[in-house]
Amino acid sequence: MHNPPHPGKVIKELCLLPLGLSVTETAKGLGVSRKTLSALLNGHAGISPEMAIRLSKAFGGSAESWLIQQTQYDLWQAMQNEKEIKVKAFA
After folding, report:
1. Is 75 exposed, middle or buried (CB count within 10 Å of its CB: 0-12, 13-18, 19+)?
2. Of 14, 75, 77, 91, which sits with the fewest C-beta atoms within 10 Å of its C-beta?
3. What is the pLDDT of residues 36-60, one digit of tens each?
4. Which CATH number fits domain 7-81: 3.30.110.10, 2.40.50.100, 3.40.50.300, 1.10.260.40?
5. Residue 46 in contact with residue 7, Cβ under 8 Å?
């Protein structure tokens, strides 16, 4: 697995910039606060199931595809500390 970009970066580069949308305008269209969208776009928050539905309705793609992007990012981040995760194997 490679280092996937944070989904917020994807949204900014593939959705907002090509359409010439501002953060304020996009937040209003999504029905969320500017602060909420800004946190997502800047990598300080992730895509929730509700946000995935909003993104799907606004920009296309399935809600599942938006959540998969978030899960791939989160898993890659966790894998960077895999050696520090100590567990007892039961198999």
Report:
1. exposed
2. 91
3. 999 999 999 999 999 999 999 999 9
4. 1.10.260.40
5. yes
